[in-house]
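Before drawing any conclusions, I looked closely at one protein, both as residues and as discrete backbone shape codes, quoted below without any editing:
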Amino acid sequence: GMIWSECKEIWEEGPREYVVHLWNLLDFGMLSIFVASFTARFMAFLKASEAQLYVDQHVQDDDLNNVTLPPEVAYFTYARNKWLPSDPQIISEGLYAIAVVLSFSRIAYILPANESFGPLQISLGRTVKDIFKFMVIFIMVFLAFMIGMFNLYSYYLGAKYNPAFTTVEESFKTLFWSIFGLSEVISVVLKYDHKFIENIGYVLYGVYNVTMVVVLLNMLIAMINNSYQEIE
């Protein structure tokens, strides 16, 4: 019903007018993810049904442990910890979780009608452009330190007390969670006596935290606070 409603809205308003409103994009994204989730689950059901049909037709023994099954059929006897990362059931569950979050955010559509919550909702919507402008600087600084720290520690894989900065992924995770105070200083410590590299790591990590946490985050908070005061 909701999909049909969105299709009617696109037909009546036209695609260009439809995408102008952010709520329409939220609805479209939410429904698309729900449909993708259900489709992935249906694909998993079909594959499992094919495996069950093979067992019913070709296996006489009740205990499948005593039977040699084709790999694509034996796969459905495995526990979840042996499933492939690309298993449709796993993908379906991940997409469904995202869609549920988006569906609850749809409640914000009625918040502007409330005297207390309205200013919060409106100020958030009107400061989106400012936040995006701010994010350009934010991402630029983040990428600079992420690549710099990776270049510094990529040669020390296995020679650190934790894998921070030894790969691009670990560098990203360490710097991202340090914004919220969830990374440790030991991330820059080496097991070797290479104090020059270690000291550079201390300096770069310290400058990053001062720049991102003390300066940029507080600047963003000040911008949002100023916009909220004006709207209120």
Remarks:
- The longest helix spans residues 22-58.
- The chain has two domains: 2-109, 115-230.
- The two ends are 37 Å apart (CA to CA).
- The mean pLDDT is 85.
